[in-house]
Write a structure and sequence with these properties.
Blueprint lengths: L1 H24 L2 E2 L15 E2 L2 H16 L4 H23 L3 H17 L6 E3 L6 E3 L4 E6 L2 E6 H20 L6 H19 L9 H19 L8 H19 L2 H8 L1 H16 L12 H7 L5 H19 L4 H32 L1
Antiparallel strand pairs: 1-2, 3-4, 5-6
Helix pairs in contact: 1-2, 1-7, 2-3, 2-7, 2-8, 3-4, 3-8, 4-5, 4-8, 5-8, 5-10, 6-7, 6-8, 6-12, 7-8, 8-9, 9-12, 9-13, 10-13
Length: 354
């Protein structure tokens, strides 16, 4: 756990420097100047969380991990998201630009050879292979092979995680806490599922990631002094997706630890499409918004709910088989869906009476 502690101290030490720099440049998210329905904070706060976590992860990785093409690709993808996050911190860029950069970051990793070659078969013994069909070609006097379904699935998995985690950072302390827990769980899982064709030390990167987000949490906890921003939110989903692939835990375990954000994202996308709206534009309909507005929960209570769900579901993922994981994910999804439907009806009823 010394890797966790080292990256934790790095991030906790970097955060006040980033806060001071952002404030000196006037790079703050001020709800008075940029009001939006999804915004829940009331004071001007710098974003910049992506700089904090990427800086800690980069330094710790270069010191303690073996540098190979896979690590370079992972850090390059995370760096791309970090710089896009800075851009978004300052200019509030279009969601389609953020989506495009997320796809590009995923392509960098998949292009290095990190993919999902198979998934566990939930309906029987064995696995479902994704290594066919293959596309072979010569480049720079070397034979390269693209595993089409494996690479497409990995890319979609990474882009999906980038977005759902980024959407779950609406209140103080929410996202860094559950991401730190999720990364720890994936680190523990990597010791149990030895399936690392890249020979990459997944557990160590998992603990470094967990420490970096825990360090950010010190300054993002209520009342927050810094916000994660798109940088930290996208890096979190990106790294959790990469770590899940490398650990051998694959899709089911990653969906377990991220079951609540996943269910919230599926419901949100469906709701926006049914309403004839773009699924990429933010609103005040996420789970954390409804817990605030309908149940009157405090921001710390919402953050702890997300942490607790990730811990409990991550712990269960250590022991459940694929079929039981899917059942658990379905139960969590149905619970979240049920609550959001009920909350929407309550909100509409209140509006009608007003």
């Amino acid at each position: 756990m010394w890797l966790f502690i080292f990256s934790f101290l790095l991030a906790a030490g970097l955060a006040p420097l980033v806060i001071k720099f952002y404030r000196s440049r006037g790079w703050v998210d001020d709800p008075k100047h940029h009001p939006h329905a999804k915004v829940v904070h009331t004071q001007a706060v710098p974003r910049g969380g992506g700089v904090v976590v990427f800086g800690a992860i980069l330094i710790a990785s270069l010191i303690f991990l073996d540098i190979d093409k896979y690590l370079i690709a992972i850090l390059a993808g995370a760096g791309l998201l970090m710089f896009t996050g800075i851009w978004d911190d300052v200019k509030n860029i279009h969601p389609f630009i953020r989506l495009g950069v997320g796809i590009l970051a995923g392509l960098v990793v998949v292009g290095s050879g990190i993919g999902i070659a198979y998934v566990s078969n939930p309906f029987g013994a064995g696995v479902i292979h994704l290594n066919q069909p293959q596309l072979a070609f010569w480049f720079n006097n070397q034979l390269h092979t693209i595993w089409i379904w494996a690479d497409i699935f990995a890319l979609l998995f990474l882009v999906w995680n980038i977005n759902i985690v980024n959407w779950s950072k609406g209140v103080d302390g929410q996202m860094p806490g559950f991401v730190s827990i999720a990364a720890l769980m994936i680190g523990f899982l990597s010791y149990r599922f030895i399936d690392d064709p890249t020979q990459f030390n997944t557990a160590h990167l998992s603990f470094i990631t967990a420490g970096a987000f825990a360090g950010l949490l010190v300054w993002n906890w209520y009342p927050q002094k810094i916000m994660p921003g798109y940088g930290a939110g996208s890096i979190a989903g990106f790294l959790l997706g990469v770590l899940a692939i490398l650990s051998g835990a694959k899709v089911a375990a990653a969906l377990m630890v991220l079951a609540v954000p996943t269910a919230d994202a599926i419901f949100t996308i469906s709701r926006r499409i049914i309403a004839g709206k773009s699924p990429f534009w933010g609103d005040r309909g996420h789970l954390h918004h409804k817990l605030l507005d309908v149940l009157g929960w405090s921001k710390p209570q919402i953050a702890v709910l997300y942490w607790s769900s990730s811990f409990l579901l991550g712990f269960l993922s250590l022991y459940l088989n694929t079929w039981l994981k899917l059942i658990t994910i379905s139960v969590v999804g149905a619970t979240v869906f049920g609550f959001l439907i009920w909350a929407k009806l309550v909100s509409q009823n209140r509006t009608h009476h007003i």
